[in-house]
Amino acid sequence: MGSYDEEVQFCYLRRNEMVTLNALEEGDWAPPTPTQAQRLETLEQENSLLRAQIEAQSGQLDFYEDCIAEMAAVVYA
After folding, report:
1. Helices (H), the chain
2. Close Cβ partners of 10 (under 8 Å, ≥ 6 residues apart)
3. How many CA atoms lie within 13 A of 14 on its CB side?
4. What region does 52 belong to: left with phi over 0, alpha with psi -120 to 50, or beta?
5. What long-range pairs does 71-74 form, CB within 8 A, spacing at least 24?
6. How far apart are CA 58 and CA 53, in angstroms?
7. What is the pLDDT along the chain (77 residues), one digit of tens a residue?
8. To 5 degrees, how large is the angle CA 69–CA 64–CA 76?
9. What is the pTM of this model?
């Protein structure tokens, strides 16, 4: 049995004929290059998501700090 790399293949339509390519060995297929506007939009979306994740983690950290402070108050009371 061949390696995983040898078994990964794509099928796509090129000039009305079906062509099978080994995805990792053939270099004539590549995804379209995004325009600068598309890249900017993608990065802005990722930035918004990352900011929201940081804010959520900050809130969770504050919650954990409060829990630890309450447990310490009970233990050392």
Report:
1. 4-7, 36-75
2. 20, 21, 23, 29
3. 9
4. alpha
5. none
6. 9
7. 444 444 444 444 445 455 555 544 555 566 778 899 999 999 999 999 999 999 999 999 999 999 999 999 999 98
8. 20
9. 0.50
